[in-house]
């Protein structure tokens, strides 16, 4: 240790000389509790005795990690794209071969190993635009407004970079829901932007009230220049699916207050609850007529990591910009070129997601069957999670209407809260760490996402296979009851 | 008026790369040819980008077989793939959560691949130890460079972070630095000496820069991009000593380490030299070394696989780097797999070894032959001179343009070498890059050609270029 202290005196890059904004960056989804979980896994491997035999990582929205199977058609096409000799292999259906050939045609030197244009492979952007048009009932989409990205995160961070400017009282403020997905808070911290929190209403199923948006904005205007409003629909971590009325209200609010809208829609196929439906911001915007559709500036984000694909490891995504000023768009195009291009396999995968097998094609029935099975299994696990958690006194779980997570509220005894504070830990981190040590289940404490003062939550994925999920939920139930008893 | 009009000044400052206009025009011409438009050439050749596959070189079979098996594990049951491909794919899949390449990996990459890389580095460096936890697997070396820059760059006015960068430069690095609000501190490489790094020039650049910013880092590219120099061990030692004396963090971009053409030159890593210099340098100088699967014998640019190895960094800083990097989830798994094969290729005795070795040798021979031929041909042309291409994948010849050509360019409001490139594209269907986008000494002009292309393509390139050049010089002379 002292050796390091001596070194610090001579080092160029220290915590004092580095970019101070970086110090404020946190990302709970892969943060301290996960690092401890990984450590515990190592200990288990080394034969250390624990009250459990495996660590269950219910902290991250990774479906394949929990056993979800990929869509056959997608993997067939991608295999042929990587090794085109397979195009003459009889095991692959003709429609898959056709897709592979088309994608390769769009690649430099007909190889997925060539750089693509920074904005993404042209034929893929065209297919994305057509998908968006179909999805949104014919609302036109221009491929030139489509940017392929490295996961949705890349697009989100790029847009935030574009948005953040000014100094002091004119520093850009960005409105984000509380609870939120901590990529937003991390990016805003690094950019030195002002994070403007608006609270979702837990009592009403995490709905968004425009009155709360107004309050947050008015407060923010006293000390910064709010320019953007971010919304995640379906929500992460909260799982609510906003009603159409709500989306219209948000659009009207953004129009009136001249805010740039960022709509994170990566869970758009993950809608489970009866009576809930995904409405894209773009579609609603255009259906509200030219007063709004020709003025409101919007960026919508999608990804190959979630929905029924769950292909996180490909880092595929896109964003669509609407009503963007041409000069700003030129800057955006410049900015994306700095990172060269998104991984080509992810671009190819996105092409398949927006252009899946059609009725009549050889792969269609298998594709539909696989997709349906995955989505209905997720719906079942969403329902199960809510049901079981709500049987635990002291745990209250809102319906998991969509996305991939439950975000239940836990009531913690005062003694537990005090002990946590003595240790310098957020009470729900204290709770989750104990849960990890006693059961091997890794969750993310609500403090990592933001929550109303004095409330505590955790985020748990609905992704483990049903049998395992039932076991997990009963372990959480048992732990909670023990915890309450211990600290009462 | 748009909400976004008042965007950050840092972004406006990024120079739009000239490459874009040429690329767009090249795409238009290609499209026009497909539509049947008459041109003095049958097809377009584009060797402006450092992209081997786009240039016509084939991927390495073993790499693609492993990737396809990882993507579609049913292939593991077929007779179609060699046994070593299958066992590599099986091993890799076992490392992935849920045995799927569709899962996220750990932030810094699959531990097994970090481990392979650390062994690769250690073997390369004659046994200098390398620790997997100092290796971050990234989306190409570009993401790693940006990650490091994000840590460094802050401050305004005289406190603005500056990074010394070579001229001719890597335009992408300079763009990245500018977009983050950092200052580019240029130091000129010495063309007449074969693009060497000169300490006197570096000292001059640093002293000048200190008047208006806070230089914290020194970016070196070895082998050079686009200039193709390969630093001697002594040169590297001098640079390390300079960095130590001047308290500069070293960023060593070594992505072309696998492409050395001159048999008298040898790639030696900054890390190895640092280690061999012993204390105090070896345990104090802070270094980040960058490598990638985009270059070298693989040329897998589109897979986006790269890494950075950190040496002598403060442990608290390392913690922050990790947290910062974790917000980007992880590097695409295909890119990670390409790196694994780069670090740990088939060995003698493996089923794929013979074919693999042959493909790689052919690739190396192609590049060596191309380097030689380009130099010879371009040096034989009046009005062109080309320094020895010791390494890397580009030729960067100097154009000695007649005054009338320069004047014509000024009239048109473009850099003279860009004008040359635009005319070359229109008349000969050959797309090469202008030196202007790399920064260069005032009143000098250059071209950038990627030599990672099949030999017969290069032959065609040189024929078209020579024809055009003679015509151009005649047109603008006298």
UniProtKB/TrEMBL annotation, chain A:
InterPro entries for this protein: ALAT1/2-like (IPR045088), Aminotransferase_I/II_large (IPR004839), PyrdxlP-dep_Trfase (IPR015424), PyrdxlP-dep_Trfase_major (IPR015421), PyrdxlP-dep_Trfase_small (IPR015422)
Catalytic activity: L-alanine + 2-oxoglutarate = pyruvate + L-glutamate
One GO cellular component term noted in the UniProt record for this chain: cytoplasm
EC primary class: transferase
One term of GO molecular function: pyridoxal phosphate binding
Keyword line: Aminotransferase, Pyridoxal phosphate, Transferase
Documented EC number(s): 2.6.1.2
Keyword Transferase among UniProt keywords: yes
Pathway given in the UniProt record: Amino-acid degradation; L-alanine degradation via transaminase pathway; pyruvate from L-alanine: step 1/1
Aminotransferase class I/classII large domain mapped to chain residues: 109-474
Cofactor list: pyridoxal 5'-phosphate
Subunit structure: Homodimer.
PANTHER family noted in UniProt: ALANINE AMINOTRANSFERASE, ALANINE AMINOTRANSFERASE 1
Family named by the database record: Belongs to the class-I pyridoxal-phosphate-dependent aminotransferase family. Alanine aminotransferase subfamily.
Function in brief: Catalyzes the reversible transamination between alanine and 2-oxoglutarate to form pyruvate and glutamate.
Protein name: alanine transaminase
Organism: Denticeps clupeoides (denticle herring)
């Amino acid at each position: 240790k002292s050796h390091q202290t001596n070194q610090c005196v001579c080092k160029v890059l220290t915590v004092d000389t580095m970019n101070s904004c970086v110090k404020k960056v946190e990302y709970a989804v892969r943060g301290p509790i996960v690092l401890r979980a990984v450590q515990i896994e190592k200990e288990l491997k080394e034969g250390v005795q624990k009250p459990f035999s495996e660590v269950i990582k219910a902290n991250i929205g990774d479906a394949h990690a929990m056993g979800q199977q990929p869509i056959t058609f997608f993997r067939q096409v991608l295999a042929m794209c990587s090794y085109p000799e397979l195009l003459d292999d009889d095991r692959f259906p003709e429609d898959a071969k056709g897709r592979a050939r088309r994608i390769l045609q769009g690649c430099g030197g007909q190889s997925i190993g060539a750089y693509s244009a920074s904005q993404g492979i042209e034929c893929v952007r065209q297919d994305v635009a057509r998908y968006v048009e179909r999805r949104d009932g014919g609302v036109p989409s221009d491929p030139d407004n489509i940017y392929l990205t490295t996961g949705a995160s890349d697009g989100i961070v790029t847009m935030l970079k574009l948005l953040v400017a000014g100094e002091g009282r004119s520093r850009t403020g960005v409105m984000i829901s509380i609870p939120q997905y901590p990529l937003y808070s991390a990016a805003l911290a690094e950019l030195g932007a002002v994070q403007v929190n608006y609270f979702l209403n837990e009592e009403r199923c995490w709905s968004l009230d425009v009155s709360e948006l107004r309050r947050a904005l008015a407060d923010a205007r006293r000390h910064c220049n709010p320019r953007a409003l971010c919304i995640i629909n379906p929500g992460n971590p909260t799982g609510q699916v906003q009603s159409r009325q709500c989306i219209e209200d948000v659009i009207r609010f953004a129009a009136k207050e001249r805010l740039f809208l960022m709509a994170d829609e990566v869970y758009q196929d993950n809608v489970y609850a009866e009576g809930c439906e995904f409405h894209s911001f773009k579609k609603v915007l255009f259906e509200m007529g030219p007063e709004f559709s020709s003025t409101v500036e919007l960026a919508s984000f999608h990804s190959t990591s979630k929905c029924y694909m769950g292909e996180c490891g490909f880092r595929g995504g896109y964003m669509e910009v609407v009503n963007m000023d041409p000069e700003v768009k030129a800057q955006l195009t410049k900015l994306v070129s700095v990172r060269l291009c998104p991984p080509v396999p992810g671009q190819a995968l996105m092409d398949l997601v927006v252009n899946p097998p059609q009725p009549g094609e050889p792969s269609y029935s298998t594709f539909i069957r696989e997709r349906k099975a995955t989505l209905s299994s997720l719906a079942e696990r969403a329902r199960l999670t809510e049901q079981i958690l709500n049987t635990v006194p002291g745990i209250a779980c809102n319906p998991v209407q969509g996305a991939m997570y439950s975000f239940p509220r836990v009531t913690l005894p005062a003694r537990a809260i005090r002990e946590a504070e003595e240790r310098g830990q957020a009470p729900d981190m204290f709770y989750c760490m104990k849960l990890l040590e006693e059961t091997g289940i890794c969750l993310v404490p609500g403090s990592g996402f933001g929550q109303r003062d004095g409330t505590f939550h955790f985020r748990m994925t609905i992704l483990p296979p049903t049998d395992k999920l039932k076991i997990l939920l009963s372990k959480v139930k048992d732990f909670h009851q023990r915890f309450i008893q211990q600290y009462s | 008026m748009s909400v976004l009009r008042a965007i950050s000044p840092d972004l406006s400052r990024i120079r739009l790369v000239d490459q874009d206009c040429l690329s767009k025009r090249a795409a238009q011409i290609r499209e026009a040819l497909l539509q049947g438009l008459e041109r003095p050439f049958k097809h377009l050749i584009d060797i402006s980008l450092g992209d081997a596959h786009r240039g016509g070189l084939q991927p390495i079979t073993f790499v693609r077989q492993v990737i396809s098996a990882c993507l579609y594990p049913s292939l593991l049951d077929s007779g179609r793939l060699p046994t070593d491909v299958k066992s590599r794919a099986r091993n890799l899949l076992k490392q992935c959560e849920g045995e799927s390449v569709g899962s996220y990996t750990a932030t810094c990459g699959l531990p097994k691949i970090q481990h392979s890389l650390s062994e690769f580095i250690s073997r390369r460096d004659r046994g200098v130890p390398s620790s997997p936890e100092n290796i971050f697997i990234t989306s190409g070396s570009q993401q790693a460079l940006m990650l490091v820059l994000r840590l460094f760059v802050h401050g305004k006015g005289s406190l603005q972070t500056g990074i010394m960068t070579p001229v001719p430069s890597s335009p992408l690095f300079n763009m990245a630095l500018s977009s983050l609000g950092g200052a580019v501190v240029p130091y000129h490489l010495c063309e007449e000496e074969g693009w060497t790094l000169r300490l006197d020039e570096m000292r001059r650049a640093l002293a000048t820069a200190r008047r208006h910013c806070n230089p914290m880092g020194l970016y070196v590219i070895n082998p050079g991009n686009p200039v193709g120099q390969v630093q001697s061990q002594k040169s590297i030692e001098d640079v390390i000593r300079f960095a130590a004396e001047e308290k500069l963090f070293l960023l060593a971009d070594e992505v072309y380490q696998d492409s050395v053409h001159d048999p008298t030159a040898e790639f030696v890593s900054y890390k190895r030299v640092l280690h061999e210099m012993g204390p105090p340098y070896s345990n104090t100088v802070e270094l980040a070394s960058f490598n990638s699967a985009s270059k070298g014998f693989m040329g897998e640019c589109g897979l986006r696989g790269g890494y950075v190895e950190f040496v002598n960094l403060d442990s608290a800083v390392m913690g922050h780097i990790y947290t910062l990097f974790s917000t980007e989830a992880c590097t695409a798994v295909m890119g990670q797999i390409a790196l694994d094969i780069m670090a740990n290729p088939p060995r003698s005795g493996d089923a794929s070894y013979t074919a693999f070795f042959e493909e790689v040798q052919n690739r190396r021979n192609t590049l060596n032959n191309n380097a030689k031929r380009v130099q010879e041909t371009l040096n034989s042309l009046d009005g062109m001179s080309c320094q020895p291409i010791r390494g890397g994948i580009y030729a960067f010849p100097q154009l000695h343009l007649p005054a009338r050509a320069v004047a014509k360019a000024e009239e048109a409001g473009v850099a003279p070498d860009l004008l040359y490139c635009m005319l070359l594209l229109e008349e000969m269907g050959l797309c090469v890059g202008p030196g202007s986008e790399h920064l260069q000494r005032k009143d000098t002009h250059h071209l950038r050609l990627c030599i990672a292309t099949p030999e017969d393509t290069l032959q065609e390139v040189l024929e078209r270029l020579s024809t055009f050049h003679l015509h151009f010089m005649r047109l603008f002379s006298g």
